[in-house]
């Protein structure tokens, strides 16, 4: 199965981000990954550009959101661990990075802690953890 790229993750923004927020982040990231900085940066740069162009337009963002949602629903995530809220210490950026067994990071934010119970998925694989 081919997974579509999560453009919100590319732009390091939540899915609820406003156009202004997306734009700001895009401008910052584009500066960091400017093609002048090497070939690896170039790939990232192209992806950032694609992500921003898709999300800045209301219509294409809507289409994309629907596509992303469909993908999320089809994906079966495997909950393999559970964490107690009181064991979670957010860092100064408001994030607690839980290391997934694939080595990827499962970013837990304050938002997840507001809910009674919440499932957070790894961005690298289909594993997920339960927070309660
Ligand atoms: Zn993982």
From TrEMBL:
Entries under InterPro entries matching the protein: DnaJ_domain (IPR001623), DPH_MB_dom (IPR007872), DPH_MB_sf (IPR036671), J_dom_sf (IPR036869)
Stated family: Belongs to the DPH4 family.
Name the record gives this protein: DnaJ homolog subfamily C member 24-like
Pfam families, alphabetized: DnaJ, Zn_ribbon_CSL
Residue ranges of domain DPH-type MB in the record: 79-132
Organism: Sitophilus oryzae (Rice weevil)
SUPFAM superfamilies according to UniProt: Chaperone J-domain, CSL zinc finger
Keywords per UniProt: Iron, Metal-binding, Zinc
UniProt-recorded Gene Ontology molecular function terms: ATPase activator activity; ferrous iron binding
Key word DNA repair present: no
Domain J: 6-68
């Amino acid at each position: 199965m081919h997974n579509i790229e999560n453009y919100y993750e590319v732009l390091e923004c939540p899915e609820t981000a406003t156009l202004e927020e997306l734009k700001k982040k895009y401008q910052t990231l584009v500066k960091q990954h400017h093609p002048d900085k090497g070939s690896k940066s170039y790939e990232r740069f192209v992806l950032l550009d694609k992500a921003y162009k898709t999300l800045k337009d209301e219509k294409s963002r809507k289409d994309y959101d629907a596509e992303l949602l469909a993908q999320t629903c089809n994906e079966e995530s495997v909950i393999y661990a559970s964490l107690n809220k009181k064991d979670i210490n957010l860092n100064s950026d408001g994030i607690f990075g839980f290391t997934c067994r694939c080595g990827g990071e499962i970013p837990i934010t304050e938002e997840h802690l507001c809910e009674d119970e919440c499932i957070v998925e790894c961005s690298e694989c289909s594993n997920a953890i339960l927070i309660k």
